[in-house]
């Protein structure tokens, strides 16, 4: 217990909390947008993975991490639209489409990684660079807070900014209204002459942007290389966060932070004598417990 | 005449689904070929190696069959669970923990080998049931998303399994991370010398027949199909839908667990898995190819295994990463699962057939 307290009450724990929360927040916002439009986008896992690799390649061969970020976003959008095309225009089951897509993402990224760097594990051989970390002028000077909040990767700040962007988009713009109607009442949407298909494509594209940024963060911020299956289920955790957060941007962000605590704790505990496998299990276990508690509560609310 | 026309339409529908499948496979290979052309100067020889690979030696061909065994188990497991329209992907975790369970029994249980094997497979099945039952029970009780839950559960199964493995089964004298060896004779034997083909192939055949019989020939299977196709209707006609859904998840988990056990006792003499084997997702892939019919799952499993072994050979000979198979598989699946793919053409043919029939009557 003492070690646990020691692990948690350090500025480095809270610093790493923000770091590990970044991809979860971004991806869960992506999941929030699509589930508001009535689509369960399990493909977000694969989108992140493919974007992460595309970002590394673009950064190494086309001109640095900023180009990498741009390409990662672009690839995220393309993947998202592809999923949409297959599941909506070609009318394949969306869950099956996404499972197929994720399977392809895991194998496909390894294929292209091997084709380019002749390595099936990582792209360490490539000098692909990193998006900058930003020191925040005044906050930086504050003793503990500065260490926690300042000097994060720029995408970490972007991710928390995105929470507000997505909030405003969903609740304060006509597009947001359309997206929400596409999920809640598609017929009403068509009756006022808005295309359901088009609205859902737009929602998917936005979630592709967010998934792309999340992927770029994984390979050009979190670490500076791509490695096989590096997302390790973060896209799935994001879906769980979306479910727990009742598909609201704030709720999903809170849930993401909760899972991030479990993940940050697992890194903090790695230096202790606690069995490492059980430590690694923590974020996933926390997600399961969180999801079940959420469902029980939702059922109880309904019963009332 | 109407009967005749229906039969004709049926026949054309069947032709159409075959044509669609062939076209899907062709397109998938074509796109993959184009992708390969970017990464190798000899895409033709790479593709050739992919196709002839499994036939180059007896050992390689038997590897196809060996690979098809766990795939078939995974396919059957997912088939039973998906029949209830539950997107439960915990087969993956069930497979992993089933394999570990059978390994522990095989290491420690001082019984005659045959009894050990039976006990190992049975316990593996029970563990598989437990794993797949968790998302099932949360779904029927609290309406949790079985999909997300099972995805998370697979990771938990991996880490708990690794923990148990390190605590009770790991051989400290082994150079790599492996368990103590299984007891003498506790394995599924060897069918053909110089290969690793084992008696699990008969076991899986039994499971195919059993699963097909269960789904299409028993009262429970019928209820399962009704619940899967229309839950409300199932409730309305008085089927205990909760019980049926749970039964299918437990049964699917049992098959996954036994599959893990059979793979472990058939192919290995020590437990040495350190990552999830991926069979849960493979099971989904197989069900799309086999149209969720247990009778077709072994065929689909053989095809997928064939591709993978061919790809390994191609990797050795042509230096094209074997993971290209993941792209080929995904493309085939997507095109097969896409209802609208070639639908315009289908519509045209059917219209012509029915119109022609009318013309004949006049």
From TrEMBL, chain A:
CDD domains: TM_PBP1_transp_TpRbsC_like (cd06580)
Source organism superkingdom: Bacteria
Keyword Transmembrane helix among record annotations: yes
Principal localisation: membrane
UniProt keyword list: Cell membrane, Membrane, Transmembrane, Transmembrane helix
Segments crossing the lipid bilayer: 12-34, 46-63, 69-88, 95-117, 154-171, 201-225, 278-296
Membrane topology (UniProt): Multi-pass membrane protein
Compartments, record wording: Cell membrane
Gene Ontology MF: a single term: transmembrane transporter activity
Any one annotated GO CC term: plasma membrane
Record-given protein name: ABC transporter permease
Automatic annotation (TrEMBL), chain B:
One GO CC term, this protein: plasma membrane
UniProt keyword annotation of Iron-sulfur present: no
Domain of life, source organism: Bacteria
Subcellular location, principal: membrane
Coiled coil: none
Transmembrane in keyword set: yes
Transmembrane segments: 21-40, 60-82, 94-111, 117-138, 147-165, 197-215, 236-259, 321-342
Compartment(s) where it occurs, according to its Swiss-Prot or TrEMBL record: Cell membrane
Membrane topology annotation: Multi-pass membrane protein
Keywords: Cell membrane, Membrane, Transmembrane, Transmembrane helix
InterPro entries on file: ABC_transp_permease (IPR001851)
Gene Ontology molecular function terms on file: transmembrane transporter activity
Name of the protein in question: ABC transporter permease
UniProt source species: Oribacterium asaccharolyticum ACB7
């Amino acid at each position: 217990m003492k070690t646990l307290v020691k692990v948690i009450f350090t500025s480095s724990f809270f610093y790493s909390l923000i770091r590990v929360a970044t991809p979860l927040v971004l991806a869960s916002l992506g999941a929030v947008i699509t589930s508001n439009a009535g689509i369960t986008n399990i493909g977000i896992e694969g989108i992140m993975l493919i974007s992460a690799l595309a970002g590394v390649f673009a950064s190494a061969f086309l001109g640095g991490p900023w180009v990498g970020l741009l390409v990662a976003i672009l690839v995220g959008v393309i993947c998202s639209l592809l999923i949409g095309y297959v599941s909506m225009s070609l009318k394949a089951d969306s869950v099956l489409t996404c499972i197929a897509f994720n399977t392809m993402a895991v194998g496909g990224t390894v294929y292209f990684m091997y084709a380019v760097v002749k390595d099936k594990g990582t792209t360490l051989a490539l000098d692909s660079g990193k998006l900058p970390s930003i020191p925040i002028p005044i906050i930086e000077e504050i003793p503990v807070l500065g260490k926690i909040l300042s000097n994060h990767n720029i995408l970490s700040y972007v991710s928390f900014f995105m929470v507000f962007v997505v909030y405003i988009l969903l609740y304060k713009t006509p597009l947001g209204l359309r997206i929400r109607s596409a999920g809640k009442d598609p017929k009403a949407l068509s009756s006022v002459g808005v295309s359901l298909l088009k609205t859902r494509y737009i929602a998917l594209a936005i979630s592709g942007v967010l998934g792309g940024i999340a992927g770029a963060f994984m390979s050009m911020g979190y670490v500076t290389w791509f490695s096989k299956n590096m997302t390790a289920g973060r896209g799935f955790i994001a879906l769980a966060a979306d479910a727990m957060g009742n598909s609201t941007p704030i709720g999903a962000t809170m849930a993401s932070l909760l899972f991030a605590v479990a993940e940050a704790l697992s890194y903090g505990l790695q230096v202790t004598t606690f069995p490492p496998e059980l430590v690694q299990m923590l974020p996933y276990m926390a997600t399961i417990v969180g999801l079940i508690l959420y469902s029980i509560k939702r059922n109880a609310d309904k019963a009332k | 005449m109407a009967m005749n026309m229906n039969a004709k339409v049926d026949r054309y529908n069947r032709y159409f689904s075959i044509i669609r499948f062939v076209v899907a496979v062709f397109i998938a290979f074509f796109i993959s070929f184009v992708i390969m052309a970017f990464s190798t100067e000899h895409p033709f020889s790479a593709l050739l190696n992919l196709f002839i690979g499994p036939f180059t030696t007896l050992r390689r061909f038997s590897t196809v069959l060996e690979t098809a065994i766990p795939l078939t188990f995974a396919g059957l497991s997912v088939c039973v669970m998906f029949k209830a329209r539950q997107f439960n992907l915990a087969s993956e975790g069930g497979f992993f923990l089933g394999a570990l369970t059978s390994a522990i029994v095989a290491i420690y249980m001082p019984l005659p080998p045959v009894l050990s094997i039976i006990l190992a497979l049975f316990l593996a099945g029970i563990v598989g049931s437990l794993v797949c039952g968790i998302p099932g029970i949360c779904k029927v009780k609290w309406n949790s998303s079985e999909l997300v839950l099972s995805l998370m559960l697979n990771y938990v199964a991996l880490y708990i399994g690794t923990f148990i493995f390190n605590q009770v089964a790991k051989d400290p004298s082994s150079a790599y991370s492996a368990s103590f060896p299984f007891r003498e004779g506790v394995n599924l034997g060897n069918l053909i010398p110089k290969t690793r083909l084992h008696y699990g192939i008969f076991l899986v055949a039994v499971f195919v027949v059993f699963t097909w019989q269960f789904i299409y020939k028993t009262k429970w299977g019928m209820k399962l199909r009704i619940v899967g196709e229309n839950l409300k209707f199932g409730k309305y006609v008085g089927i205990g839908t909760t019980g049926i859904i749970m039964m299918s998840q437990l049964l699917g988990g049992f098959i996954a667990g036994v599959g893990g056990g059979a793979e472990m006792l058939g192919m290995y003499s020590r437990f040495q898995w350190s990552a999830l084997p991926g069979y849960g997702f493979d099971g989904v892939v197989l069900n799309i190819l086999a149209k969720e019919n247990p009778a077709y799952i072994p065929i689909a499993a053989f095809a997928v295994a064939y591709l993978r072994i061919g790809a390994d050979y191609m990797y050795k000979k042509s230096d094209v990463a074997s993971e290209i198979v993941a792209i080929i598989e995904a493309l085939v699946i997507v095109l097969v699962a896409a209802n609208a793919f070639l639908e315009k053409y289908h519509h045209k043919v059917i219209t012509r057939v029915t119109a022609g029939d009318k013309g004949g009557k006049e």
